[in-house]
Amino acid sequence: MASHINETDNLRNKTNKINNNNNDDYSSIIDTKATQYDEHSIQADEFMNKEDLEKVVDSNVYLQHRLFSFLKSKKIPEIPKDDAERKEYTYYDANFISKVFFLWCIPLINIGYKRTIQPQDLYKLKPKMKIENLTEVFYENWNKEVTKLISLYKKKNPDEQYPDFENQKDELAYFYGKIEPTKYSLVKVLFLTLKKKHLKALLYVVLGNCSAALNPLVTKRLINFVEEKQVFPRLHVNKGI
Predict the structure, then answer these.
(1) pTM over 0.85
(2) Angle 131-156/185-193 helices, nearest 10 degrees?
(3) pLDDT tens for each residue of 73-128
(4) Could you give the C-alpha distances from 112 to 61, 76, 85, in angstroms and in order?
(5) Strands 60-61 and 30-31, how do they pair?
(6) Residue 60, strand partner residues
(7) Within 10 Å of residue 40's Cβ, how many Cβ atoms?
(8) DSSP letters along 149-182, please?
(9) How far, in Å, are 77, 127, 191, 199, 200 from residue 196 at the CA level?
(10) Which stretches are tagged as biased composition: Low complexity (predicted)?
């Protein structure tokens, strides 16, 4: 008799739990299948493995409960549906202080604090960062280098007759195989293509090496001051600083 009563109570408890779950408010859940990808955007299976697909596409996005979640609203940031809604890479538009302290990352961090970051949340590249733009600049610099080589070829062969070219493309095609780039031509063109980045990187390397070389000197001065402070306790700290 007692066992039948226990079974009845367990069944009643399970029924109550199911009813409570059905009455829960799931309005804060975002269905990533409907909002994350459309027919015009890159499909998830093109760059994600099966395990990631199960985590991102075949699951829902929930409001995350973290240490300081009580300080933020319970509204879940929407997932961008296409590239038009995605933000561009903001590093180049940030000021010096924002770059030093990575303040330009805060909007993305805020999204990740509320919910799991999705691929569509990441910044899209600016036009100057895309490979198409760099390729165009590279070909432009390369054509200039080839034009210089053609001029040198004409000076070395003044007696050779040349046809009239309608455009630069025909001229380059005519001299193809007759001229040879120097061993520095490609290096020169690559430098011109990424000139600003190369110079900036070189500057950072020089500053970093100078700092590494001067650090031991500063440390030596501090050690000397500490030793002198032990002998003369009344010595002011200002000198050490």
Answers:
(1) no
(2) 140
(3) 888 888 898 888 999 999 989 999 999 999 999 999 999 999 888 889 999 999 88
(4) 11, 10, 17
(5) antiparallel
(6) 31
(7) 9
(8) HHHHHHHH-TT---PPPSSHHHHHHHSBTTB---
(9) 37, 16, 9, 5, 6
(10) 16-25
What ranges in 23-130 are assigned the alpha helix state H?
32-35, 50-56, 96-100, 106-114
Query: Do 61 and 77 form a contact (C-beta atoms < 8 A)?
Result: no
Counting other chains too, the contacts that 182-185 makes at CB distance below 8 Å and 24 or more residues apart are: 182/149, 185/145, 185/149
Tokens 């950072």 correspond to what residue?
A: 204
- Please say whether the beta carbons of 108 and 121 come within 8 A: yes
Give the DSSP letter of residue 165.
Answer: P
Which 3 state secondary structure label does DSSP give 147?
helix
Q: Which amino acid is at 159?
A: D
C-alpha to C-alpha distance for 95 and 92, rounded to whole angstroms: 8
Residue 40: partners with Cβ closer than 8 Å, 6 or more residues away = 82
Sign of the torsion angle spanned by Cα atoms 127, 129, 134, 135 = negative
